[in-house]
Amino acid sequence: MKKVFCLALLAMLSTAALFAQTTDKPFRISGQVKGLRDSSMVLAHWYRSGTQYIPKDTAKIDAEGRFVFEGSKALPQGLYLVLTPKQRYMEFIIDDKQTFSFVTDTASFIKAMKVTGSTENEKFYDYQQALAKFYEEAQAIDIQRKMRSDAVSTAMFNKQQNDLAKKANTLRIDFIANNKGLFAAKVVAANSEPEVPEAPKAANGRPDSIWTFNYYKAHYWDNIDLADERFLLTPVYQRKLERYIKELTVQQSDSLIKEADMLAEKTKASKEMNLYTIYWITSEYERPKVLGTDGVFIHMAEKYYLTGIMPLSDSTALAKVKEKVNTMKPLLIGKVLPPLSVSDTLRRPINYAGIKADYLIVFLYDVDCGHCRKAIPEVKKYMDANRSKGIQILAVPTPNGSPEAWKKLIREFKIQNWINGYDYDFRTDFRHQYDVFTTPTVYVLDKEKKIIGRGVPAEQVGDFIDFHKRQQAIKATTAAPATKKEPKAGK
């Protein structure tokens, strides 16, 4: 199923710097790469995390390795690549001055690079060339380390490596400080990690790792200008955004919502950064990879899309978002699953409210679904081993198959001891009432029929329930109040 937000993305991209509007200013970038001839080069800008790029121009390489990129409209500003026929690349910063030239060599793009007419790129390559010298020294030290492994030599090589690291850090700090007006300095700064001071001691006498993590996270965004939309045409912002949300934030709806709102607020100074941040987080959690984080999508859709903060392409797209919210909101973790009105093989109504179980698996499937037919034996194996342990299963097919086909499936897989239900009257809109866009769709409910798992892979439903049991046992142990001594009589 295509995501709803694919429709909304088209509207957003018309204003985002990702595909920024161009002006009438021309660009002309001439280059020479010694060692290349009679082929073509591509000028492109980065897209998202640095694994994709968007071509903007191509140029023929002559017999001496010369080529020219040019156009009648200015390029959107950001970090660009010049790609060789073998997909090797050089990076250049495109700012408001888009006429410059460069010469380099295939032996080493960075080491041989000479840029003329662009202060941004002259400084950018001065920094990279100085950094490359440290890298060469580090490689030489590594070679010597492999040849001499005694303790004295190892200590000496470690000191040399540490000294090099300090010099590289000083180079970075000085470059940023001395080139504050350049986007190149912003890019270098944004790639820097927060400097974390020495942590205080924890109760066990060791450095407090929790304090270290909290400090790092609190200062994670210090080095990047979130008001500069040019970062959308670099891999830097996307990588930082993904890491912050996926690795530094607890994958629970409340925690994710808090950080999403924080980032939406931080990026307000740039409309393009703001729109992209909202879009990416919303899209990421529309069909989340982590169970129980669907609430992030609901929050983002209601707060930013349905209020008009995040523009949508047209009324159709808005209606689809509303429909998605209305479908998913009653099905979030912690909500009571709406009762299914189904009957058994003898057309007797199944008393959904009367099903007693510590855990109830609601298995919604399609009789002709190949994945469903592979999953049923796995679920059956678990149910056969755990049916007496307070676990029940209600299996209901969507009305694509006939009652006869459904009964045949029950016999085929020998699942007569499941609670098998069928909607003979076709009253259930499975797509909108239970968010069934793919089959099988699995819900896991507690004894009160509250949803504790939705979208659980059918093959992993047993693992999910076992994990939930362990988590509940841990909570019960840690939440148990300390026993208080009863006061003696008369006191």
Condensed summary:
With 491 residues, this protein is α+β, with helices and mostly antiparallel strands.
What does this structure look like?
A hairpin with a 4-residue loop joins strand 2 (40-47) and strand 3. Residues 5-24 and 483-491 have low confidence and may be disordered. The chain is built from 15 helices and 13 strands. The radius of gyration is 30 Å and the shape is elongated. The strands form 3 sheets. Strands 11-10-9-12-13 form a 5-stranded mixed sheet, with helices on one face. It is 42% helix and 16% strand. The longest helix has 29 residues, at 119-147. Helix 8 packs parallel to helix 10, helix 9 runs antiparallel to helix 10 and helix 10 runs antiparallel to helix 11. Among the domains are: 126-190; 209-331; 352-475, Glutaredoxin, CATH 3.40.30.10. The termini are far apart. By secondary structure, it is an alpha+beta fold.
Shape: elongated
Specify the CATH architecture of one domain: 3-Layer(aba) Sandwich
Oligomeric form of this entry? single chain
**Strands in their spatial order, largest beta sheet:** 11-10-9-12-13
Mean pLDDT: 89
CATH topology of one domain: Glutaredoxin
Q: For the record, what CATH class of one domain applies?
A: Alpha Beta
Strand content: 15-25%
Class inferred from helices and paired strands: alpha+beta
Radius of gyration: 30 Å
Strand element count? 13
The helical percent reads 40-55%
State the separation between the terminal residues, measured CA to CA.
71 Å
Return residue spans where pLDDT drops below 50 for at least 5 consecutive residues: 5-24, 483-491
Number of helices: 15
The CATH H-level homologous superfamily of one domain: Glutaredoxin
- Largest beta-sheet details: 5 strands, mixed
Sequence of secondary-structure elements: HEEEEEEEHEHHHHHHHHHEHEHEHEEH
